[in-house]
Design goal:
Order of helices and strands of chain B: HHHHHHEEHHHHHHHHH
CATH architecture of chain A: Up-down Bundle
Oligomer: heterodimer
Number of domains of chain A: 1
Number of strands of chain A: 2
Structural class of chain A: mainly alpha
Helix content of chain B: 55-70%
Distance between the termini of chain B: 30 Å
Strand order of the largest sheet of chain B: 1-2
Shape of chain B: globular
CATH topology of chain A: Four Helix Bundle (Hemerythrin (Met), subunit A)
Strand order of the largest sheet of chain A: 1-2
Order of helices and strands of chain A: HHHHEEHHHH
Number of helices of chain B: 15
Strand content of chain B: under 5%
């Protein structure tokens, strides 16, 4: 749809900058965020709401960790792998983090090529992003399997406070679900880009609306958010 | 001369956003059932919420029968009483009031009042309703599962909520939590739509400070809900894990029936924090739309501009922000550091300032107005009185030292029913009488409406006013049977019986209302497009009820605020928002 992304060039030239610009925008008619499409505004507000969900999860976990009277398992030990005879703490998490952050890079490049209307490069980069995301989820599955084999359960673990397993599976599971949904949508949108849906203004199957290249950027917002959340999980769960 | 505040924008600026093509239904199914039209979704939301709300009404009769005449009704035992309490509270607060105000009134009024053709993402909006319906079905199914619905109280406090002594421990609590999670998912899809529609899809000339206060109330409440429901979502997920997987997020070490349970190390207080971080904003999620709607009702039916429009807007926003930093006043008896009690008591009492501003402004709007005692106006007046009453007892309960002895007594029940039960319901009813003509094209019957109002208003007072006295006597809440305690004097029983009789009468009056809704649909007086001679955009639609796309060919253009009533020198005592300034001559309903 040729909806809200259009800029009104002569108007934007006349617009004030800084705080005055914000005040002008909010006291104007039609739109509070000028040049922000409906879809992008909706994604930002959704992410704000989702931030509160992850914050509640992390705060609950921190409360449990601080108030438990049983020792908390040492994450450096728990998440260590022995590779080639070397005992390396947090190595898998380090690789996972690297993979996920790299996927943010490819996503940003996909957004760039999307705005250049370069169908092939956009679609390929989105698929690379999806592949990196799937790799991340795969490594997470490996990590879960390893911990479960070692006896970690949501209700108990061999090393200390039972809330360790509970928080671990809940938080990483919830984040992994976000990544999985992201991968699914990345593939779906990459297919649309590849097929040229946004060039021929083909209508969506469910919504019967015309899509546009901006959806790549909106997808990118979600993807970067999921990566950012991982950084917090990494810091508060693994490094603490 | 009366100073009529015109906003600075001289005339409507050009359209920034090209028109979006609407989804056009192709069959009966996509027009009326899987509809993407916000107006149809609004009616679906409203009917579903009313249906489940009636269940909660019947549950309240059951509780009153037991309290008024203990031992008389053998089909109500202690477990069922707790189940009735839980389901009554949860349904009324979340599945009725939240859904009706935001899903019902929000869907119907936001696009019409801001001059949009529909919500920004109609497909997501449709999904929102169907997920909500699923949540309601899951909730209602708990009445039919083994063990029945949960009896944990609407606050679902652990550890008791998932222990075997609480009714509904098998299925009830699991389905309740699942239903809440579904509700939150469904609400989020709708809520994102409402917020983006208000922010990004207004018509030409419709600035934020020209929005009717109804939209301000619903908009702010939706933003709050999007930030508050996450806490309930997280709490529900964690409790579900405690119940199903045996985690110990909220469960301390416990001995049950002489057996050490497998739980240990969790924090029940953590649940209370999460729950009330949602729970307190929730009070204002149902109150702010009521504030907004009642402002419009009073202004329209008193033929006078709202007093202090800007202060009303800032008060709504301020209340919304403050309500996120008061939650622990629900937890004074849970034990907390005295400094925290001091902090939360202070923030709680500060909320009295913006709410008092609103009450004064409503009264000053009425002052020297041309008051028409129509049914919507009666309900609006009833709201002000009820809300002030409930707000004053809130000052009692917000103070730690006064709250501690009153906690868990009928005083609390009286307080929250007055302030967030009866008061918002008054507005809901008034709003239905006000907007029913726009939705159906027919007026609700006036005589039945007045009967409904007086029985409901006086009855609600007769029910809840004596409860304050019961609470001061020390009568506890949530007790199936008061038993023989020295402080329970004989007049407590007399009062309880009296309250029960009144409650049944008020319940009967609601049946008159429902009959009125159906009867007027076929036999009501034709209303025309703008029966209340109101200024806001929804009354200026070319068709009544508004057609698909709301506005015909051209979107309306807004030239003024929503409250130009009784403007000196104007031909009529109201000027619609889409009336250009240059042409003072008026022709009733505009293009």
């Amino acid at each position: 749809m040729a909806e809200t992304a259009l800029t009104n060039p002569e108007e934007s030239a006349a617009r004030a900058t800084g705080w005055q610009g914000i005040a002008d925008d909010w006291s104007s008619d039609q739109r509070a965020f000028k040049n922000v499409s409906w879809g992008k505004a909706m994604m930002w507000i959704f992410l704000l709401s989702d931030t509160f969900i992850f914050s509640c999860f992390l705060l609950s976990y921190m409360t449990a960790r601080m108030s438990t009277t049983v020792p908390w398992p040492n994450p450096s030990e728990v998440f260590a792998l022995t590779i080639g005879g070397h005992h390396i703490p947090l190595i898998l998490i380090a690789i996972m983090t690297f993979v996920l952050i790299s996927s943010s890079g490819t996503m940003a490049m996909a957004v760039n090529f999307g705005y250049r209307r370069d169908r092939t490069k956009t679609a390929v980069l989105m698929l690379v992003t999806a592949a990196l995301g799937a790799t991340f989820v795969g490594m997470q599955a490996f990590e879960w399997t390893k911990l479960i084999m070692e006896g970690v359960r949501p209700w108990e673990n061999p090393w200390g406070a039972p809330q360790f397993g509970a928080s671990f599976f809940m938080i990483t599971g919830f984040h992994g679900t976000h990544v999985t949904f992201g991968v699914i949508f990345l593939v779906a949108i990459a297919r649309k880009v590849w097929r040229g849906d946004f060039d021929v203004e083909r209508r969506g199957f469910f919504t019967s609306r015309k899509g546009q290249y901006e959806i790549v950027e909106i997808m990118g917002l979600y993807w970067h958010f999921v990566d950012l959340v991982w950084v917090f999980i990494f810091a508060f769960f693994y490094l603490w | 001369m009366v100073d009529v505040p015109y906003d600075a924008i001289a005339d409507a600026p050009p359209a920034e956003v090209p028109e979006v093509e609407l989804y056009h239904p192709k069959s009966w199914w996509t027009q009326y059932v899987f509809s993407q039209d916000a107006k149809v979704i609004a009616i679906q939301y409203s009917l579903t919420a009313t249906a489940i709300g009636l269940v909660a009404l019947v549950l309240s009769w059951m509780m009153r029968l037991q309290l008024g005449f203990p031992g008389t009704f053998s089909f109500i035992d202690a477990n069922q009483y707790l189940q009735f309490i839980t389901m009554h509270g949860m349904i009324m607060v979340i599945y009725l009031l939240t859904a009706l105000f935001l899903g019902g009134f929000g869907n119907y009024l936001i696009p019409l009042m801001v001059g949009a053709r529909d919500m920004v993402f109609p497909y997501v909006n449709m999904l929102s309703y169907w997920v909500y319906l699923l949540a309601v079905v899951v909730l209602a199914s708990t009445f039919f599962v083994p063990g029945g619905p949960t009896g944990a109280g609407w606050t679902l406090y652990p550890p008791q909520a998932i222990l075997s002594g609480t009714p509904g421990q098998d299925w009830g609590i699991v389905l309740m939590l699942a239903s809440l999670i579904l509700f939150i998912i469904g609400f989020t899809m709708g809520g994102l739509n409402y917020v983006v529609t208000v922010l990004q899809a207004r018509t030409r000339g419709m600035t934020l400070m020209r929005l009717p206060l109804t939209v301000w109330g619903i908009f702010t409440a939706t933003v709050m809900a999007l930030l508050a429901f996450p806490a309930l979502f997280v709490a529900s997920v964690m409790m579900l894990f405690d119940r199903l997987l045996g985690t110990s997020f909220f469960m301390p070490a416990l001995i049950e029936m002489g057996q050490q349970m497998k739980y240990g190390g969790g924090s029940p207080i953590l649940f209370q924090h999460l729950f009330w971080f949602f729970g307190h904003p929730e009070v204002y999620i149902v109150a702010l739309p009521a504030f907004g709607i009642v402002s419009d009702l009073i202004s329209t039916h008193a033929r006078k501009n709202i007093f202090g429009y800007r202060m009303m807007v800032w008060a709504i926003v301020g209340i919304g922000a403050l309500s996120f930093v008061v939650w622990a006043h629900h937890m004074y008896v849970s034990g907390m550091h005295p400094h925290f009690g001091f902090f939360f008591a202070t923030t709680t009492l500060i909320i009295a300032i913006p709410t008092a501003i609103k009450v004064y402004n409503w009264v000053l709007t009425l002052w020297r107005g041309d008051i028409h005692l129509t049914v919507p106006m009666l309900f609006a007046l009833g709201f002000i009185i009820t809300f002030v009453n409930g707000g004053l007892t809130g000052l009692f309960l917000g103070n730690v030292v006064v709250d501690v002895p009153l906690s868990d007594t009928m005083f609390v029940v009286a307080h929250f029913h007055m302030v967030m039960g009866v008061a918002p319901i008054m507005v809901v009813l008034g709003a239905i009488y006000h907007w029913y003509p726009k939705v159906t094209g027919r007026m609700l019957d006036d005589w039945m409406g007045k009967f409904h109002f007086w029985v409901t208003f006086l009855g609600a007072y007769l029910i809840f006013f004596p409860m304050h006295y019961l609470g001061l006597q020390g009568v506890p809440r949530r007790y199936h049977d008061l038993g023989e305690a020295a402080f329970i004097t004989p007049n407590v029983h007399t009062l309880n019986a009296f309250i029960t009789v009144v409650a049944l009468i008020v319940g009967f009056a609601q049946m008159v209302f429902l009959f009125n809704l159906v009867w007027s649909l076929f036999k009501g007086k034709a209303s025309g497009g703008n029966p209340w001679r109101a200024t806001t955009l929804e009354w200026q639609t070319p068709e009544t009820p508004p057609g698909h796309g709301n506005w015909g060919k051209e979107l309306p253009v807004v030239y003024r605020w929503a409250y130009d009533y009784s403007v000196p020198g104007a031909a009529q005592d109201f000027i619609p928002q889409n009336q250009p300034r240059a042409t003072p001559a008026l022709q009733g309903a505009a293009p």
